[in-house]
């Protein structure tokens, strides 16, 4: 077994979908990747140095090389293995891998966020906006569904970085919306997703999501936490009961 090599630090959140492939490939390449859990909206100076906007994921190598943007970080980590098959065999493969990573990252991640975040109280709720976001997701998934009718994987006949990077980007969909009926209507996307997220390279770094029978979220405003009613002050509790 190869000695693990100290490689760098990844600034991220533990369940960040854009970081799954980066962590998976680093582990497979025996690169020791320190994980720095980012407190939302409070990037450290080192993190800010890697990504001027303080966004995640961002990377700083042991050699001081700083890199932001998930696709760039994923490719950099993957390319550390000179013999990797994950970047394809030809220039066309490599370009296709980049295309799919870019497609999922730009056409799916944002609308999926716009679909679920208002429903869990992480963004202002507007029924039409949520509905519109769900339609944008469906349109992008239709492209993937058609492509995967005749292709097992996104690029070539075997798993590449495109699959490892892109499948986890659908996690929020499968977590909140893609129920049994949806999966029956999108058999190719579902087959591909399940195949990829169950690969040992992924399961080594990411928890599997249980598949939904029914959607976990529907297009209704999130329940507001009940405002505490102004009540008359109760008598002081005996010490044993005080929280």
Automatic annotation (TrEMBL):
This is eEF-1B gamma. GO terms for cellular component: cytoplasm; nucleus. Gene3D superfamilies: 1.20.1050.10, Glutaredoxin. The lineage of its organism: Eukaryota, Metazoa, Ecdysozoa, Arthropoda, Hexapoda. Residues 216-243 are annotated as: Disordered. It comes from Photinus pyralis. Residues 90-226 form the GST C-terminal domain. Pfam families: GST_C (PF00043), GST_N (PF02798). Residues 228-243 have a biased composition (Low complexity). Transmembrane segments: none annotated. It comes from the Eukaryota. Belongs to the GST superfamily. InterPro entries: EF-GSTs, Glutathione-S-Trfase_C-like, Glutathione-S-Trfase_C_sf, Glutathione_S-Trfase, Glutathione_S-Trfase_N, GST_C, Thioredoxin-like_sf. Residues 6-85 form the GST N-terminal domain.
């Amino acid at each position: 077994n190869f000695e693990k090599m100290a490689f760098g630090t990844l600034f991220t959140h533990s369940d960040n979908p854009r970081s799954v492939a980066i962590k998976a490939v680093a582990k497979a390449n025996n690169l020791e990747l320190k994980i720095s859990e980012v407190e939302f909206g409070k990037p450290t100076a080192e993190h800010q140095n890697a990504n001027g906007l303080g966004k995640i994921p961002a990377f700083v190598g042991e050699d001081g090389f700083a890199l932001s943007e998930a696709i760039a970080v994923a490719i950099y980590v993957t390319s550390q293995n000179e013999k990797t098959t994950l970047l394809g065999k030809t220039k066309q493969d490599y370009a296709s891998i980049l295309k799919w990573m870019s497609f999922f990252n730009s056409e799916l991640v944002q609308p999926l966020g716009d679909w679920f975040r208002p429903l869990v109280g992480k963004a202002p709720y507007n029924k039409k906006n949520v509905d519109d976001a769900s339609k944008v997701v469906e349109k992008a998934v239709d492209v993937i569904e058609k492509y995967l009718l005749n292709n097992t994987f996104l690029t070539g006949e075997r798993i590449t970085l495109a699959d490892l990077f892109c499948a986890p980007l659908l996690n929020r969909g499968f977590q909140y919306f893609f129920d049994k009926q949806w999966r029956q209507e999108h058999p190719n996307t579902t087959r591909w997703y399940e195949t990829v997220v169950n690969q040992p390279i992924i399961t080594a770094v990411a928890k599997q999501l249980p598949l939904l029978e029914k959607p976990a979220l529907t297009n209704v405003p999130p329940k507001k936490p009940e405002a505490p009613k102004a009540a008359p002050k109760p008598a002081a509790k005996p010490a044993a009961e005080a929280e």
